[in-house]
Amino acid sequence: MLVHNSDVAEIFNKVADLLEILDENPFRVRAYRNAARTVGSLSQSVAAMVEQAKDFTELPGIGKDLAGKIEEIVRTGNLSQLQDLEDRIPPQLIRLMKIPGLGPKRVKTLYDRLNITSLEDLKKSAEAGEIKNLKGFGEKTEKAILAELGREKKEERIKLNVAEEVANGVVNYLKRVEGVSEVIVAGSFRRKKETVADLDILATCKKGSKVMDAFVEYGNVGKVVAKGETRATIVLRSGIQMDLRVVPEASYGAALHYFTGSKAHNIAVRTLGVKGGLKINEYGVFKGKKRIAGKREEEVFDHVGLSFIEPELREDQGEIEAAQQGKLPKLITLKDIRGDLHAHTKETDGRHTLEQMVEAARNRGYQYVAITDHSKRLSMTHGFDAKRLAKRNEEIDRLNGKLKGFSVLKSIEVDILEDGSLDLPDSILKELDLTVCSVHSKFNLPMKKQMERIIRAMDNPYFNVFAHPSGRLINERPPYDVDMEELIKAAKERGCAMEVNAHPDRLDLADIHCRLARDTGVKLVISTDAHSVNDYDLMRFGVWQARRGWVEKEDVLNTRSADELKKLLKRK
DNA sequence: GCCGTTTTCGGCCCGACTGTTTTCAGTCG
């Protein structure tokens, strides 16, 4: 059986949960959680690393013990320690901890005193009024549990475009409140994670401002979870949770750093502070009782000997060390993008004509656009056959003859068929400036077959860009079963580029694979997969995703001029 | 369970809010 990194992470998280319920040393618990995070965000597969006899203790937070446990999981699919724990305490208790307000201590009490192990048990006891009599519980807690159990479960994380819309709404609202100066959304939204769990808003204001009152009265509030002097939590009717923190202006930078996270990054920075005799919290940087910095975010980094780290990098994935050594990447920006290399027209499943798509690309200052309609296999989109494509190429030649300082690139989004052949003959593909190749069928092939299929397609000398490489749709469809590390290697060997599909439903490549591609030397292309003129606006999401993968301008083909681009696309 | 320019033991980031207490534990981020 093949063990995925996520399997290892899940087992470590379970161990951590159960140890926590058993009231074990919290630092031991943290060690398991850190290990889960480290393995979970590794771009290489641990299974392959075991095969290659790699030393896991070189990974941060993995010592001899955990390294052995990773190997055990890879070899057996299980961890005997977890089974021992599950003999001592029902593993279903982990589910109870997901209820807001129930942590390890209370779950343990519920189990010890009322023998509650399931949501059903919990509901029965709450309805019978047994919970409020337990020590540490009360009337309100019991009611809150019942309310939570009755609520529709909505565990999905929020896509970045939805989060952005909600964030803009609340920021504009809060900025109009009297006495408010700064309002910014921090947290994973500022780090531009592909999905976010909630929105963390930071504000500064003058004394006496009613910003907290205004916040809990925001138009779409479904529930006020907490409200204090400096912090409040609300849940919108849509189910989105928002936290507001208010700090003095002098603390803005320290608070912004703190609330941007990630948690792991913060811990690492604070630990550096401790080593330098400093205390860092959301109010500033302190030497003894004296605050020595905090107004600007840069100051926090300064005082622990780091250059400024962009929010997208703050995951404790090597950015601290890079900042210490002055080796941070110079991340790509939206301005670096000179053209879009994935766009559809009305001829297949887009909404606008060739002329409209070209005009819109010119108007936003691009130097080129690749028009990539579907190929015939996607019959429902009325995909192009060789004859129609030849005619389309003529149209583009005519159009290019009229345009100055702008190129329309002849292209196609060609289907990778089940046997690994491309959906159009080489004789027509060779007439194109580039091909964008993708999988749109047979998503559930076994990994070996899926890999053979894709790599065989890459063998075709006219295969240029592998589009939305994992095939996932966020919250809707998991990736097809492939070993992305191997695909990236295969792309490198053959001179193929990989797409970072900017559509917020896809964001495919994932951040860790952007980074792996860059480290491997595979060129990237950031494209919107536009199906209308407005979709070109989605480019920012792709750029953010690439930035999370440490990607620089030089790693991305569509930061080059059209001529340079064509040269780089040529395969040896 | 990890880690080490205060190194093999004794630390491990830090604070706000709620509910249940009567000074604080538990939870959360």
Give an overview of the whole structure.
With 572 residues, this protein is α/β, with parallel strands linked by helices. It folds into four domains: 5-150, DNA polymerase beta, N-terminal domain-like (DNA polymerase, domain 1, Orthogonal Bundle); 158-247, 2-Layer Sandwich (Beta Polymerase, domain 2); 253-324, Beta Polymerase, domain 3, CATH 3.30.210.10; 334-569, TIM Barrel, CATH 3.20.20.140. Helices cover 42% and strands 14% of the residues. It has a five-stranded mixed beta sheet, sandwiched between helices. Helix 17 (354-363) links the parallel strand 11 and strand 12. The longest helix has 17 residues, at 5-21. The radius of gyration is 26 Å and the shape is globular. The chain starts with a helix and ends with a helix. The mean pLDDT is 92. The structure holds one DNA strand of 29 nucleotides.
Please supply descriptive tags for the structure shown above.
572 residues, alpha/beta, DNA polymerase, domain 1, Beta Polymerase, domain 2, Beta Polymerase, domain 3, 4 domains, 5-stranded mixed β-sheet, 5-stranded parallel β-sheet, 24 helices, DNA-binding
Sequence-ordered SSE layout with sheet pairings:
Blueprint: H1 5-21, H2 26-40, H3 46-51, H4 64-76, H5 80-88, H6 93-96, H7 104-114, H8 119-127, H9 139-150, E1 158-159, H10 160-175, E2 180-185, H11 187-190, E3 195-196, E4 198-205, H12 211-216, E5 221-227, E6 231-236, E7 241-247, H13 252-260, H14 263-275, E8 279-281, E9 284-287, E10 290-293, H15 297-303, H16 319-324, E11 339-343, H17 354-363, E12 368-371, H18 386-402, E13 407-410, E14 413-415, H19 426-429, E15 436-438, H20 447-459, E16 465-466, H21 484-494, E17 497-501, H22 511-520, E18 524-527, H23 539-548, H24 562-569
Parallel strand pairs: 4-7, 11-12, 12-13, 14-15, 15-16, 16-17, 17-18
Antiparallel strand pairs: 1-3, 2-4, 5-6, 6-7, 8-9, 9-10
The structure holds one DNA strand of 29 nucleotides.
